[in-house]
Each structure stands twice: as C-alpha cells, then as structure tokens.
Amino acid sequence: MTVVTRFAPSPTGFLHIGGARTALYNWLYAKHTGGKFLLRIEDTDRERSTPEAVEAIFDGLNWLGLTADDEPTFQFARRDRHAEVAQQLLDAGKAYYCYCTPEELTAMREKARAEGRPMKYDGTWRDRDPSEAPGGVKPVVRLKAPQDGDAVINDQVQGEVRVANEQLDDYVILRGDGTPTYMLSVVVDDHDMGVTNVIRGDDHLTNAFRQKALYDAMGWDVPTFAHIPLIHGPDGAKLSKRHGALGVDSYRDEMGFLPEAVNNYLLRLGWGHGDDEVISQEQAIEWFDIKDVGKGAARFDFAKLTNLNGIYMRQADDKRLVDEISQRVAAIIGTDAIDAAQKEILINGMSGLKERAKTLIELAESSAFYVTDGVLSVNEKAQSLIDSAPEGLFAELANSLEALESWTEENVDACVRATAEKLDLKLGKVAQPLRAVLTGSNSSPGIFEVMIVLGKEQTLKRIRHFDA
C-alpha cells in the first residue's frame, strides 16, 4: 500500500508555525515511506476564507520546500460530492433528518447541564417518523452514530485511545441549508483523495472518534491516525503570538531565518534522532518516522532557532546569501536596489561576514558598509575610537597605503604594521581606529580582509574623509 498523507489548512489567515510543522511531518512521512503528500485547502468557511490567505499558504509551503505531489484540492468545490454522501447515508438508514429548532436544542443542553449529563443531542428525531415533522423547519441531517461499546483508535503517536460510544452524539453532517459540515467534508475528501495516514494536531483527537463513525457507516477503510502534540511557548502555555505563533512569512521577512533552519528546528520540536541537532533534509527523510514523535508538548525556543539559523548561514553559498539580503541592504543604504558590482563586493566579503551573523537581518546590517557610497554611518563606539585616534594617524596610513603598488592582504597587513611601528603604537591602536573609519563600526571581519574587499580606492577615500 502506498502511503498518502495530506496537509489541510483553512485559508482564514497566515500559515502559522504550528501548521508548518504539521505540513513538514506529513511531507517527511510521505517521503520516508515512498508515498505521496497532498494539499487540501479547507475553504468551506466562505466568510473568513480569502484568496490572500490561500496565497500566503502556498507561499509559505513553497518557501519551506514542502510542495505537494498533486494539484491542491479545494474543499468548497466538492460540496455537491459531500451532499451526495449524506444522501447515501440517508438512503441506507444510517443518517436521519432532525427537525429540532434552535430553541429546542438550547433547552436540551440546559436540561443536560442541570442534570449533570454531557451536553449533547439526545436523539429526539433518531427513530421518529418524519411525518411528524413541524412545518417551516429546514431539517439538518445527523449521522446515526453507534450507541453501545467503545470507539477505539490505535494512534501512531498517542497509542490506543478508547472512548465509550455513549459519550458521542449523532452529529450534524448536513446543515439546514444543505451545506456540508466540517466533519462530513473532511471524511469524504480524505477517502476520495486516498489518504491513508492522517497526521495532525492532538486538538483533533476527539474529532477522530466522530469521523471513524462516519467511515464505518460508509464501509470505508479508516485511515491510520497520528495526533501530534501542540507546540507550547517557553513558559509551558499554549503557543501564542507573544511566543512566536506568527505566520511563516514573519520568520522569513521580519526575522530573517533560512527555510532549512526553520525546517530543522520544527523537525526537532517533538521528534529527535539521538543527540543530532543539525539534520539535513536528506537525513530527515531517511530517519523520520511518525511513530517516533513524543506525546509531550514541545516548547518553542527562539534562542535555539536563532543559533541553528547561524549554523545554516555559515554553511550557505555566498551568492545565495547575497541574493537573500540584497533588498535589505538596498533599504539600509537608501537605494531601490544594489547593482551587479555591489553584489560582487558583497560576495567577496561574505565568507567573513556570515561567520558573525545569526540571521539575515544581522547579515544585511553588518554588510551594508561594504556598498555604502558617500558618508559612512558611524556608531557611537566607532566614533569614540576615531576621536581618540593618535594625531596624524589617518594621514600616515593614507600616504603609506597609497604608495602600495600591489593591493594584497599580505601587503596591506605589512603596511599597517609598519605604520604602527613608525608611530610607536601597538597594532590595536592603529587597527581599531582604522576599522572604525572603514566600517563605521567597532566590530567587523578582519580589518585586512575588509581592506581587500573594499579595494584600494574606496579604502583610501574613507581614510582621507576622516583625515580631512
């Protein structure tokens, strides 16, 4: 049997980080087993579903590399098929029309509450003759759920979970206006799409028992369920916006993370492989099994994600990183875009830059000095180094460096050292002010590397600006 998994988000907002992990687990399990990963957009809530949210979901999944193996299915477009299944259940006597009014249902719940019973539908119309139906009431269709015994689910994460059928009710599968409910649509779509494994958050565990009743009523194979624990914040509370329950686009655009780092981090939120922290996509596909996901909720830790992102940045191709930060750098230096020559400068300097940054935001900020044309922005500590530099230092450096015929790291190193010796200064007393005038910062890649990347003309221009 070919494993078929699916990710089925509702397009009522962004692709949040918990949904991204669910998609990742479904994608990995399909790849690990040689199966298929499908995408379904559950857009039946027409008031809240928006085209923008659909695009945000597609965009987020594409950025993470979690592409589906077939075209996406849109649930709303299949509403006639859902209603068809409801009619089949009615014809087989496994579903029935319920004519209870909203007032009657409210009274039913209040009575159950007063008597200390579960507040569920009491089966008023389960075996009642439809000829007794009151006029003017549009009936809903309810599933005839089992009333005796237990409903049992052998969950790949939670183990065997058992619920007494008497705790479940005859839930609505078709509303009075003829539209299908979530429970009906999900089961019909999963069956028709050939889904064999349903991997989702454990907040859906109670739904699984109700859905199993519908599978059984239709005589369909019940998929294998795996309900994964939700992600909590560092304080153990349910993940919220203050913890990082933001859209995937925020991790990319506002925080500057790489997709492979986000995937790696989400992978280990509930699953692990020994002491391995950095796990490539190829390793993840080879090692991942949904049965190895733990039952306990994982805690989101921005510090760990940021450190992991730093590791992936150091491993990343220099040109790719420049492409990633180009627009950010352009915004920092006040231009619409950086040109090919500026990109080449950044590529040349990237090996030293990426060792010092953990996010693309940091990388862009630390890179901007290389391609700034005009007056360099200087931070407070750098300005202090410039102000306290020995008198005549910058003029001496400019004159010595200008005399160099070959602009190599070995030559500029020797020239700066010779200047320090001539002025009877320790190297740091020369290198630190020099760093400040060339980068505008008290921290940067090695100063001689910086000088080579900037080139002779730009190096001298910046030194002479502060010597003026």
Automatic annotation (TrEMBL):
Keyword hit for Cytoplasm: yes
Keyword match ATP-binding: yes
Enzymatic class: ligase
Subcellular location: Cytoplasm
Domain Glutamyl/glutaminyl-tRNA synthetase class Ib catalytic: 3-306
Taxonomic superkingdom: Bacteria
Primary location group: cytoplasm
Catalysed conversion reaction: tRNA(Glu) + L-glutamate + ATP = L-glutamyl-tRNA(Glu) + AMP + diphosphate
Binding sites annotated in the UniProt record for ATP: K241
Span of the annotated motif 'KMSKS' region: 238-242
Every Aminoacyl-tRNA synthetase class I anticodon-binding domain range: 339-465
NCBIfam families: gltX_bact
Protein family per UniProt: Belongs to the class-I aminoacyl-tRNA synthetase family. Glutamate--tRNA ligase type 1 subfamily.
Quaternary structure and partners: Monomer.
Protein name per UniProt: Glutamate--tRNA ligase
Organism in which the protein naturally occurs: Thalassospira povalilytica
